[in-house]
Amino acid sequence: MSNVCVDTTQVFKENLFAGKVLLCSGGGSGICRTMTTAMVKHGAHAVIVSRSKDKLEKAAEEMRLETGGQIIAVAGDVRKPEDMENAVKATVEKFGRIDFLINGAAGNFLAPFQGLSYNAFKTVIDIDVLGTFNLTKAASEYLKKTKGSIINVSATLYYTGVPFQLHAGTAKAAIDAMTKHLAIELGPHGVRVNGLSPGPIASTVGMTKLSAAFKRDGVNDYEGVPMGRAGETMDIAQATVFMNSAGASWITGTTLVIDGGSWMTNTPANYPEMVINPPKLARL
Ligand code: HXC
């Protein structure tokens, strides 16, 4: 049974973001795709950025068909500052402005920390932390002009220290710190900076990779979640539309957890057994 609201237009006005422009890293897949689609359904134009040009172009085409809106794809690696500067340039050339930035690109996999190579740890830190910094720095002058809003996509992993997630939890902790520092420095320019922290969302790449750490066997096994259901990408889209709306105009520097209460039960009851005898973890 799901009581998720299926479309943000059931809750928020359809023309809420008419004439405004969103730039979203990771916007071609998973949670960020639904976040972007929702913003476009409310009138925004969007630019989505990620590494794989072909996948991104295909996603943009599907999203255009779904929304009837303007969405363009710009290939780029968030770890490369010059790629992010290029994405910002392409956005402004096409649409003339940037009102909203979503830092959504992330990398993750399950691995005990002793099994992480130095490069594996660095890779996730680079994608999540450097990536958020790079795109924010590149877009910030344009966001000041529009008194825009930034959303950093976080995770609750480090609140309880979920096993096999040291790399990702550390990265998300740094992102939450960045949210506060950016909010302080950009607030006087009229730019709000917040985080959204999704819990386990059914059917995403992230959850497919991580379900063993949560000892939740597939998308229907969510008895441990206080709200009794899996998260859906639409849950995060609802919060995105609110956070970018004038209704949130006095909210900055905070990270909103959207997880049905699940972070409080994140660490599996049998976790000592899990870390002493780690399960065989498939590389997905
Ligand atoms: C251990 C691994 C590994 C694994 C890769 N590595 N996968 N180590 N276990 N499963 C190591 C590699 O051996 C290598 O180290 C280093 O990490 C870099 O790997 P590459 O494949 O060269 O990196 P790259 O091509 O840049 O890919 C990055 C990636 C990949 C993170 C490894 O999975 C990716 O691009 N993911 C993007 C999509 C994604 O993961 N989305 C999920 C986000 S979920 P060596 O030493 O061999 O060179 C999320 C939500 C969390 O963030 C919250 C949920 C509740």
Automatic annotation (TrEMBL):
It is an enzyme of class 1 (oxidoreductase). The keyword Oxidoreductase applies. GO terms for molecular function: 2,4-dienoyl-CoA reductase (NADPH) activity. Its EC number is 1.3.1.124. One of its GO terms (biological process) is fatty acid catabolic process. One of its GO terms (cellular component) is peroxisome. The keyword Oxidoreductase applies. Keywords: NADP, Oxidoreductase. It catalyses: a (2E,4Z)-dienoyl-CoA + NADPH + H(+) = a 4,5-saturated-(3E)-enoyl-CoA + NADP(+); a (2E,4E)-dienoyl-CoA + NADPH + H(+) = a 4,5-saturated-(3E)-enoyl-CoA + NADP(+). PANTHER family: PEROXISOMAL 2,4-DIENOYL-COA REDUCTASE (PTHR43296), PEROXISOMAL 2,4-DIENOYL-COA REDUCTASE [(3E)-ENOYL-COA-PRODUCING] (PTHR43296:SF2). This is 2,4-dienoyl-CoA reductase [(3E)-enoyl-CoA-producing]. The gene is ABSGL_04347.1 scaffold 5409.
